[in-house]
Design a protein that fits this description.
Low-confidence stretches: none
Distance between the termini: 69 Å
Strand content: 25-35%
Number of strands: 41
Mean pLDDT: 89
Number of helices: 19
Oligomer: single chain
Strand order of the largest sheet: 29-32-33-37-36-35-34
Largest sheet: 7 strands, mixed
Shape: globular
Length: 804
């Protein structure tokens, strides 16, 4: 949310600088994320000067350009090439000399440089109003009064107001801070602790009717619209707003539209009450009806989109049709236009839940819905209406017709809350003086109904929906008093306890450090993801979000793979193609008993292991890269026991392999299949491993790492390239090798799988590595060769394998 520094000072008399004000607001919980100077004319016309055109000649090399000589008050005339059709000798113009920066109305600013245009030197620019932010006309250059002297500063010719835009990262619970008055109230509460500072309350006028109202208002649904107010205004003239009003809106990033719309925006940001103006002459039957939408009712909103309404949507209608989605967005047919002279001005309090659902349903996030769905002040509905109506009379020349309509059958009450002194002291860690507490509460509009030795009985106004418990009141007191004003105790007492539970964080940090040392980067992603991903994993047990933030974040993730692929795409689109990522995260599933979640560790490799250079031609990542890393990881945790590989099926992976340790499935690894790779637009193969972190932790032995001597004798490696039927899993090869290899066989590993071109139909190729070791003496080739022959014979007999 953006607020104006000058606008806040309308409500509180202070000499604080913008920076000092920002610091105070941040410490009260209204965190300032940005501070930027702004001017009523962008760029403030800095560096622009007045010039006199002394001569104009046709450009020798361009029909539409002219060469001019311009006096800007210096010793020499400036040569400027100009393309404006209205440039003429003797004119007084605005000149942007070399080195100055211009700020066009609808474009980015740019600096003026000395240049050659079609062979002729140009030492500046003669400006049109759209080129320096003074308007939108592109008809030609601006011509000033001849009485203005050459060399004068253009900035001094215009009344340029300066302001600062303060951007606040407002949390959803702080509905009281959605306005300049709300921000000023917090600021005044802090300053009031040092010297008496009170926020200046707005005076709301009593409206005087000039004629009778011709409109009838009916509310059919008080559950969704507890309070609805409005007033009719006639004989107003829609035209541009005065400069002061336009400048207020520009300072917070809003574009002025016309006086009626600008006033509603002004009130919205001044006191936090959204308003809506209807063209009264377009209200059919002279009747306004607040009702729920009909089944499959169609409605065209201001953005010219036709929307199908839901029966739960609240609509503001005339006798026959809808005019506005209540509290969310107006309709295209009932809005204020340049010809409007008769309006109905609406001010209401809508049910926050209803507004939030409608806004999400139609993907409409407006200034109005932003405030209504968090809760505006129901007691301010009519006050805002009075102020806006009076402004429309003063600025647009309108006349009030009839009395204010205020349909409010059941008052919305505030909250009765206690402030126990002992509880507050225990929570804060310090006893704040009672007089200080009372001063803070009164500054925040929290009434003190009763005081006793034990505490205060309070009445919290209904717009403070975030203050309903004693802890909430303590938080209010403390944020104004200042967290930094609570001193640290002289002694910090820490109790050291022993726990037999596994320190999960220690192991996660250890593994993360290990992976980073191996060249991987950790990524962190959102647990919410797209529902379309559940179709790719073919699992309907997904956990959907009842109130999704967007269509892109509507279910809980079932796999970490998609998060990693999104990160890879993001990097590859920025020419970073050699990637190695890992992520710890939870996946979520629905089951018969409720919900389940699993902690996983995902590894991703794509591209080359190392950048290509003259001494390194670049080694590509492969299935063995990720397999070797997983083995090292298991050894790091001390769980590399009874290791077994089995072929697996996975909708996202090709050549998928399941890893078992001590008969428990701990991982699945493989290469991303071609279809998913194509769907994501990834240009290189991606090697993936998904490890079940919960199972891995369960296998960890807390007694520590078991050490063993380095073998005294060398290992021996032998490889087989086997041709087998596609239906034969690697686990069968592994089983036969372990049966025949005896105690000399230390490891059997699959390091390549090939299916496709140059192989017989229905066949695949396995490249298998066998590691042999005798711990007592050097293993002789004759023994290894004999065992390898035995394994080969058994593979041929039982699996139909043949050597390639």
């Amino acid at each position: 949310m953006k607020v104006s520094y000058n606008w806040i000072k309308d409500f509180i008399d202070t000499d604080l600088s913008p920076e000092e004000m920002s610091d105070i607001l941040t410490f009260t919980g209204l965190e300032v994320e940005g501070l930027e100077k702004c001017e009523s004319i962008k760029g403030g016309l800095q560096g622009l000067i007045v010039g006199k055109v002394k001569s104009v000649q046709k450009h020798p090399n361009a029909d539409k350009l002219k060469c001019t000589q311009v006096d800007v008050g210096g010793d020499e005339l400036l040569s400027i090439v100009c393309g404006a059709p209205n440039v003429a000798e003797g004119q007084t113009v605005i000149v942007a000399p070399v080195g100055s920066t211009v700020h066009p109305t609808n474009a980015d600013p740019f600096q003026i440089n000395k240049a050659k245009i079609r062979g002729e030197v140009s030492e500046g620019m003669i400006c049109g109003e759209d080129e320096i932010g003074l308007g939108s006309s592109h008809d030609g250059i601006m011509v000033l009064d001849d009485a203005i002297e050459a060399g004068s500063s253009v900035r001094k010719l215009y009344a340029i107001s300066e302001d600062y835009t303060i951007e606040i990262g407002l949390t959803p619970n702080r509905a009281d801070g959605f306005s300049h008055f709300g921000v000023a109230r917090d600021l005044a509460a802090v300053l009031n602790l040092k010297s008496e500072k009170k926020v200046k309350h707005i005076s709301y006028p009593e409206l005087v009717s000039k004629s009778d109202s011709s409109l009838e208002v009916i509310v059919e649904d008080y559950e969704k619209c507890p309070r609805y107010a409005g007033v009719e205004i006639k004989n107003l003239k829609v035209e541009p707003s005065p400069d002061w009003l336009q400048n207020r809106l520009k300072a917070i990033g809003l574009a002025p539209i016309n006086n009626v719309v600008d006033i509603t925006n002004f009130i919205n940001h001044e006191i936090g009450q959204p308003l809506h103006a209807f063209d009264a002459d377009k209200i059919g039957g002279k009747k306004i009806v607040v009702r729920r939408a009909h089944e499959r009712e169609k409605f065209v909103t201001l953005d010219e989109k036709e929307r199908e309404l839901d029966p739960e949507d609240l609509m503001i209608c005339d006798e026959a049709k809808g005019m506005c989605i209540g509290g969310v967005f107006g309709g295209i047919e009932s809005g204020v236009s340049e010809t409007t002279n008769h309006i109905f001005l609406e001010s209401a309090y809508f049910n926050p839940v209803s507004i939030r659902k409608s806004a999400k349903r139609h993907q409409l996030n407006t200034d109005a819905s932003f405030r209504f769905e968090r809760g505006v002040d129901p007691e301010n509905t009519v006050n805002a209406l009075k102020r806006a109506a009076q402004m429309m009379c003063d600025i647009a020349g309108g006349q009030i017709a009839g009395e204010i309509v205020d349909l409010y059958p059941q008052a919305i009450n505030g909250f009765e809350v206690e402030y126990p002194f002992d509880y507050a002291k225990r929570l804060i860690g310090k006893a704040i003086p009672i007089d200080t507490v009372k001063t803070i509460l009164e500054s925040l509009d929290i009434q003190i109904k009763e005081e006793s030795e034990k505490g205060l009985q309070l009445y919290v106004p209904p717009y403070r929906v975030d203050v309903q418990r004693p802890a909430d009141v303590v938080e209010e007191v403390l944020r104004i008093y200042g967290y930094n004003n609570v001193e640290n105790p002289p002694h910090m007492k820490i109790a050291l306890t022993h726990s037999d539970e596994l320190d999960k964080e220690k192991y996660q940090n250890s593994v993360a450090d290990f992976l980073v040392s191996r060249g991987l980067n950790e990524i962190m992603s959102n647990s919410l993801t797209k529902a379309v991903y559940s179709e790719k994993v073919k699992n309907e047990a997904f956990v959907s979000i009842l109130n999704p933030l967007s269509n892109e974040l509507d279910i809980m993730r079932q796999s970490l793979i998609f998060n990693g692929l999104e990160a890879i795409v993001h990097n590859q689109n920025r020419q970073r193609e050699n990637l190695a990522f890992f992520e710890f995260g939870k996946t979520y599933f629905k089951n018969e008993k409720g919900y389940d979640e699993h902690q996983q560790l995902a590894l991703f490799f794509t591209g080359q292991k190392q950048p290509e250079s003259w001494f390194n031609q670049g080694t590509l990542n492969s299935e063995s890269s990720i397999s070797d890393l997983c083995r090292s990881l298991f050894k790091r945790l001390g769980i590399f026991k009874k290791f077994k590989l089995e072929q697996a099926e996975d909708p996202l992976l090709s050549n998928a392999v399941k890893v078992k340790l001590s008969k428990k499935a701990v991982a699945k690894m493989g290469v991303l299949n071609n279809k998913v790779q194509s769907d994501f637009g990834i240009n290189k193969e991606v090697y993936i491993a998904i490890l079940d972190w919960d199972v891995m932790l369960a296998l960890v032995d807390e007694k520590g790492t078991v050490f063993s001597d380095i073998p005294k004798y060398p290992e021996v490696r032998r490889d087989f390239s086997l041709l087998l039927d596609q239906s034969v899993p690697f686990s069968e090869i592994q089983k036969i090798a372990q049966q025949k290899g005896g105690h000399y066989l230390k490891d059997v590993d699959l390091f390549d799988v090939y299916e496709g071109k140059n192989l017989p139909t229905g066949k695949k190729s396995y490249a298998v590595k066998f590691t042999w070791l005798d711990t007592k003496q050097t293993l002789k080739d004759e023994i290894v060769d004999g065992l390898m022959n035995d394994i080969r014979a058994m593979l041929e007999k039982q699996l139909g394998a043949s050597l390639r």
